[in-house]
Amino acid sequence: MNDEKKLNGTLKYHRERVEKIDGQIVSLFAQRLRLVRKIELFKRKLNMPVTDMSIEERRLNLVEEKAKKKNLGEEFPNIMRKLFSFLIEEYRDIEIRQRKSAEKK
User: Fold this and answer.
1) Do residues 32 and 87 lie in contact, with contact meaning Cβ atoms separated by under 8 Å?
2) Are 56 and 88 a contacting pair, CB within 8 Å?
3) How far does Cα 102 stand from its chain's mean position?
4) pTM exceeds 0.90
5) Taking phi first (over 0 means left), then psi (-120 to 50 degrees means alpha), and beta for anything else, what does residue 48 get?
6) Domains recognised in the chain with CATH numbers
7) Do residues 28 and 83 make contact, with C-beta atoms less than 8 angstroms apart?
8) Pairwise CA distance, residues 58 & 20, whole Å
9) Of 33, 36, 40, 71, which has fewest CB within 10 angstroms of its CB?
């Protein structure tokens, strides 16, 4: 029974650490979104398109390379690429909505 208590305590500790990291990730994504919004303002003032596929692909390749260096298996770089592809797509949609909203004013 003592071993079970110890295991449950260790499990709880690790879950709490994951929750803390999740909070940090949310904060980082929020910082990223604030920067994306600023970038969109500059792109609009410079009459630049919302999408630049070469920048997006370069960013995805960089994320994938950084993930490979973590040596967490073959699936980790793929997961990171998918995650960042999703983020870029979502933030691009935000940029498009922001631009449309600004054009209406």
Assistant:
1) yes
2) yes
3) 25
4) no
5) beta
6) 2-104 (1.20.59.10)
7) no
8) 30
9) 71
